[in-house]
Fold this sequence. Notes:
alpha/beta, four-stranded antiparallel beta sheet
Amino acid sequence: MRKSVIFVADSLDNAHKFQQVLSGLDVEVAAGSSAQFERLLSRHPSCDLVIYEARGDALADIARAESLMREGAAASLLIIVDEDRLGEFRLPVQVKSDFVVHGAGEGECAARIRQLLWPGNEGSASDLLIVDDMAVNLATYQVTVGGAPVDFTYLEYALLAFLVTHPGRTYSRDALLRRVWGFDYYGGSRTVDVHVRRVRAKLGPDLAQHLETVRGVGYLWSA
């Protein structure tokens, strides 16, 4: 499911760096300065993460952020703090939070963001496939459509994931049995048709159009 992030910074270096980091993640971003923070929170009350640059009077900045967020939704907080302020720095206790020091590399920043947005999921951005309003998470074996989870059986999920990760190529029923069901499956190829019908029904009419029947051959996923 696509996440919502509020990014608050007054320095151009952090703005540029985090723009690069966030562009590689499945998130929607609302950005602004510290003076616009309260307005951003009111406009995005269901955000999942706030990235807040605490410069100058860092303790006061963090206390303000914690106070404003405590009154709203249960978003997480990632604080950007100067290294020379670490001696006085304390993580907020009333919101889920983490920090990076000013000047941290893009890889570290991305890892901290992923841990706050998708805790326990060690998959990378490449594990998440987006087609229209469908998201297929190859790391967690989960599918959402329009943000709502879809209840696939394992074989339904495996069939969908295989086709989505091999778009534009037609596979025969026998090929799908070998690739999805495995060599130990001895049932008839009609089981593929049954599972395709179930997958289409659960995806809904718009997404189901991507799962095409190639007459006399098999099935393909059109990107």
